[in-house]
Write a structure and sequence with these properties.
Elements (H helix, E strand, L loop, with lengths): L1 H43 L38 H12 L11 H4 L46 H10 L8 H9 L3 H10 L6 H12 L8 H6 L8 H11 L18 E3 L15 H4 L7 E3 L21 H10 L9 E4 L2 E4 L13 H12 L16
Antiparallel strand pairs: 1-2, 3-4
Helix pairs in contact: 1-9, 2-6, 2-7, 4-7, 9-12, 11-12
The protein binds heme C (2 copies).
Keywords: Electron transport, Heme, Iron, Metal-binding, Oxidoreductase, Periplasm, Peroxidase, Signal, Transport
Pathway: One-carbon metabolism; methylamine degradation
GO molecular function, one term: heme binding
Length: 387
């Protein structure tokens, strides 16, 4: 009997001891994790980028500049900023009379209430025809070095005429659109204030719209405030997400600078060759075989507002996008080649997309960080259209 009691006692003591040990290690691990996050928080919110941990960049040396604030916007020498020009551009941006049906304005697909996009997978335009690409935001477009997913416009001035003439978008000849604006009396004084005289030309229309677009810039986001020293504004997950973005998840190879894009064209393996949704990307413009399936690296500022995501709007949630990167997108073989105009073309996915094996927690942290790049939605009243 005595023996049995001692055995029970010994067992009890061992279990308690083990339990204590275990609790201590988890407790210590949590403490270690927390102190790591605290250190990151101090470094990243120090206001001094030289104190940040080193980023992990691909050995192929992608175009890189550190993430941070958006720099001051530069206006081109032949289209300098004036308040009058920007406000004329804003009116034109909202004016559906630039379209064939007099129903579709730039703002129809680039709506400020929807992150300056239309929040649709693919845009529809004239006669409700469906386009083949997802509408990009015009927020912060001043920092884009070329326009469109495939870079087919070199400047915002060139770009502005294209949707007007696009048969599936605004469906109007630019000269006829210009004539319609010429005939609206109320525009005369606006052009005079913006350009010094009343002459209305297609180039002036484009210049005014481009000037307006260069003023659509994000105000400081929670990210900007955090790196400026507002130390407690980030949750632990957001701090970890920022760190992962720059290190293990290697997003920084492409989404870098204050614009969160290095303006380079990259192949993410999303061109779906030989399928109905095939999109040859930059190849359509350059006809360079190595450009098949390349798209301009998009900005990640305001990213929570501009879904669905990618050139074809194929991702409904940011969680899906992060999952895609975590697997390194093992692009199915059947989508990697096509015959186009008699030429065989292959999609060569970037080597920078590789298995990252992010944990569930890390994926959530990355997503939390992406959320801090967005600013609150604004709902500006549309301008009064001249008569
Ligand atoms: C029918 C919907 C629709 C209309 C109307 C429309 N857009 Fe777009 N916009 C899009 C789509 C879709 C894209 C991406 C197209 C592509 O890459 O091929 C785009 C891309 C852009 C871009 C490129 C952004 C970047 O980051 O490269 C700019 C700038 C732009 N539009 C401005 C305008 C202006 C200015 C107007 C009016 C003159 C206009 N859009 C009218 C749907 C539209
Ligand atoms: C090799 C360069 C590269 C790397 C690395 C990269 N991206 Fe991208 N990213 C792109 C390109 C190119 C696109 C557009 C592809 C398309 O439209 O099919 C894109 C699109 C996106 C989009 C959708 C944007 C939109 O407006 O629709 C998100 C979100 C995104 N990336 C987040 C990330 C995150 C998070 C990481 C890190 C885990 C990452 N990216 C790593 C090149 C890259």
């Amino acid at each position: 009997m005595k023996n049995a009691v001692s055995w029970v006692l010994v067992l009890f003591l061992t279990v308690t001891l083990l339990n204590n040990c275990l609790q201590n290690t988890t407790h210590q691990e949590i403490k270690k994790k927390q102190s790591f996050i605290d250190q990151l928080r101090i470094a990243y919110s120090s206001g001094d980028i030289s104190k940040w941990p080193k980023p992990i960049l691909d050995p192929s040396k992608p175009a890189f500049s550190e993430i941070g604030h958006l720099p001051k916007v530069e206006f081109p020498a032949d289209n300098l900023y004036s308040e009058e020009k920007a406000s004329l551009g804003r009116v034109l941006f909202y004016d559906p009379r630039l379209s064939g049906s007099n129903q579709i304005a730039c703002a129809s697909c680039h709506d400020p209430e929807l992150g300056w996009t239309d929040n649709r997978k693919l845009s529809f335009g004239h006669d409700r025809q469906l386009g083949s690409r997802n509408a990009m935001t015009i927020m912060n477009v001043a920092y884009a070095k070329s326009l469109f997913w495939d870079g087919r416009a070199a400047s915002l001035e060139d770009q502005a005429k294209m949707p007007i003439e696009d048969m599936r978008e605004m469906h109007e000849h630019i000269d006829i659109a210009t004539e319609k604006i010429v005939k609206i009396k109320g525009y005369e004084s606006l052009f005079e204030k913006a350009f010094g005289d009343k002459k209305i030309t297609k180039d002036r229309i484009a210049k005014a719209i481009a000037t307006f677009e260069r003023t659509v810039i994000s105000p400081p986001s929670r990210f900007d405030r955090f790196i400026d020293g507002d130390k407690e504004i980030y949750t632990n997950d957001e701090v970890m997400g920022l760190h992962l973005f720059r290190t293990k998840a290697q997003c920084m190879n492409c989404h870098n600078s204050g614009y969160f894009s290095n303006n380079v064209f990259e192949n993410n393996g999303t061109s779906l060759l030989s399928s109905e949704e095939e999109d040859l990307g930059q190849y359509l413009i350059t006809k360079n075989k190595s450009d098949v399936g390349k798209f301009r690296v998009p900005t990640l500022r305001e990213i929570t507002k501009t879904g669905p995501w990618m050139h074809n709007g194929s991702f409904n949630t940011l969680a899906e996008v992060i999952q895609f990167y975590s697997t390194g997108n093992p692009e199915p073989y059947k989508y990697r080649s096509t015959v186009h105009d008699g030429t065989t073309l292959n999609s060569e996915k970037s080597d920078m997309l590789k298995l990252l094996d992010l944990t569930k927690e890390e994926m959530l942290q990355l997503e939390a960080f992406l959320g801090t790049l967005s600013t609150p939605v604004t709902r500006p009243a549309p301008p009064k259209l001249p008569k």
